[in-house]
Task: structure prediction
Amino acid sequence: MSKKKKTIFICQECGYESIRWMGKCTNCNSWNSFIEEVKQPKEQRGIGASTTQKSTKPLKINEIVSEKEPRITTSMREFNRVLGGGIVPGSLVLIGGDPGIGKSTLLLQTSAQIADKKLTVLYISGEESMQQTKLRAERLAINTDKLYVLSETNMHQIIHQIEEVKPDFVVIDSIQTMFKEEVTSAPGSVTQVRESTMELMKIAKSSAIPIFIVGHVTKEGAIAGPRMLEHMVDVVLYFEGERHHTYRILRTVKNRFGSTNEMGIFEMKELGLQEVMNPSEIFLEERSGGAAGSTVVASMEGTRPVLVEIQALISPSSFGNPRRMATGVDSNRVPLLMAVLEKRVGLMLQNQDAYIKVAGGVKLDEPAIDLAIAISIASSFRDQPTNPEDIFIGEVGLTGEIRRVSRIEQRVQEAAKLGFKRVICSENNLDGWTVPAGIKVVGVKTVQEALKLGLGE
Result:
């Protein structure tokens, strides 16, 4: 006797289930996020409810044999490095980004490069027809016999085609368009996204096929759908950049096979995305020498140092409450550093508006940029330019001390490679490594010492 279907309400933000509609989710506090869905009886629900699973026994960790499979590499070294050295067989990778940013272009280029290595690739699009995908491939000058294209949204048909083609690499564009017939909710809902991703995860793990999933993003920039989607996959990548600029940034948010701080820089050109091998030159190419409020910092993005210009503009406030605005850095860090400059250095900044910007659209979040921001603020306030051949690296404490940062040797080597002559950093960073030829490293203990060196006081 079949069980009766049950109607429930599911929060589209976090997946919380309720037997009645609620205006505000008690789990994630989001408003108007509940949608009515029909919950299927257990024996009718998708993922192997009636199949018998093989039981496994726990093993001692010393008895488990670790098998290191070779990674699949593409022709784009930036893409390989963001993934931790290449694509791991059996991995499930989620890539999100704004509409029109280039997600489909990046994955189609990657698919073609893998197909050129005589590996079979299946590119499944739920948003475009096969003719539209062919037009993009012609624009990107893609011509290979190992790349198969499928326009489908039904998960059962997709699984059938994966079993038929037996590909070495699969792309799903996008997960919000996929649906399972057993689930009555609309494509893109929490249940459909969760069930479809679970099916793809089973295929990836059982067949050792790497699967890339494209995910839509919300207006806040987060991947749409349930938060558990990011927990289910192995790697989460965000493709960022301004649609009106040519540069794109591929950033790792989660990676079970490598670092979570890696960043790859690409440039959108007529023939698709091309990797930028030296992003420091791009971020500094339009820097104007001798301008007050401009400093350069060597920031670590994963395992690679990147030199970025930080700009500050300090102007008298017209209102009782001065403005503190920051682009590319944490907005809470700016008033903190200004308070340190007021208390420890004596700069009267309480009646000044402050605007901080990281040139090039990069987002920096490490403490090593504190000193560069502080020097930029003081330089703009006093209208004294810094030496264009100086680089400032260090974390600023609330007592005005300059604290050590990690990987100082790689940062200094990148600065020397681009022709900078002096690095001002914490005195505690001077021991245990060799300074490259052609550059001088000066250690300071406090912000006052750094200002005397940086502004030539």
